[in-house]
Amino acid sequence: MAKILPFKAVRPTRDKVSLVASRSYQSYTEDERDTRMNYNPYSFLHVVNPGYRYHKDISGDERYKLVRNRYLEFKEEEIFIQDKNASYYVYKIINREKETFCGIIAAASTLDYEKGVIKKHENTLKKREETFKKYLKTVGFNAEPVLLTYPDNDNINAVVHTVTQERAEYEFTTTNRDIHYLWKINDTDNIQTIQSAFNKIETIYIADGHHRCASSCLLSRDNISNNKKKSDTEAYHYFMSYLIPESELKVHEFNRLIKDLNGLSKEEFLIRLDEWFRIENRGSEVYKPSKLHHFSMYLEGEFYSLYLRKTMYEFNDALSELDAQILYKKVLEPILDIKDLRTDHRIEYSHGKNNIMQIKSKVDQGEFAIGFGLYPATVEQIKRIADQGLKMPPKSTYIEPKMRSGITIYEFDT
Known about the structure:
Layout: E1 4-5, E2 10-12, H1 17-20, H2 30-39, H3 45-48, H4 60-76, E3 80-82, E4 88-94, E5 100-109, H5 110-115, E6 118-119, H6 126-139, E7 141-142, E8 146-150, H7 154-163, E9 170-173, E10 179-185, H8 188-199, E11 204-208, H9 210-225, E12 238-245, E13 250-252, E14 254-258, H10 266-273, E15 277-283, E16 294-299, E17 302-308, H11 323-332, E18 347-351, H12 357-364, E19 370-373, H13 379-387, E20 398-400, E21 410-411
Parallel strand pairs: 6-11, 8-12
Antiparallel strand pairs: 1-5, 2-3, 4-5, 4-10, 5-12, 7-21, 8-11, 9-10, 13-20, 14-18, 14-19, 15-17, 16-17, 16-19
């Protein structure tokens, strides 16, 4: 049963939230970051990129300490304030495509992660886990929630529906035309309803943020081993999460771009593909897969549709049914000799929110020799893979919503 708790968030004041909120640090180019920081002294980028003040790239322990300093300055200047009472926070995004995402920001338990109540579907890298754990330990807060998903629940939905009829604590629009709203839930009855409802949910799934979740768990273990307080109520035994119903999760595909054909001619490559796929040359007709186990391919100025020969292929577990795994096992690894999807420099990825024409453009410009388009995985596929203890290949899913950093901050005493 899931332990999902309210917490006392540190938040921007209402008049500054639109200026503070930022995308994740890694999503900006260097020029984009510099431009935003030049003209916006309130951007959360000033906290997570403290070297900007000194015109210097700073990393490691030195950077972590400066992040902590910038964060404390934002609090001292009352750009950030902390709520007096523990609350749940309803967060809604309406994107430019008019898709709506609405969920609850709360504290999720690291013990639930260790027990498998919170399940994962991706492998994590130990080095990244340790690096981010060290970061968390130094800065003492988390500003980017882990995206979790849970089965739709009538009791939670009822509370969220009632709360969102009132005036939002925050309402602002970003430059990419997404509209963001936040409501605070701190009355006893609604808190009890939400907490009890989550306590009856047997399994919650990580949608995005596997490394953040794993790092928070490492931090929790460290504090236990260092003879800190043993009570599971300590803040460092939890991590900030954004919990969204399964019905509102949006899963996009990650398409694949490959730099060469591994020494094969076009004809030799197509013959190798023919063993596992029915191939149709569609010429200049743009083709995007419309169902699972169908793939698109763009090669030498032409689109192809690839349909898996199901009589030849054996489905033996949830992972074997995943299109990203099929492409890897039958094409990328055996034919194109791409063995490590994380480190091989011959492969790059383009998420499905980018038009299939981006693949065409990059191949036509000579940046890549071939591109593959996939049909997006389903939430049910993700759940079955997690339930069976399996792990998806890297870049199998691009999941929305994507939250802004710095809107709610979770502090813990380490």
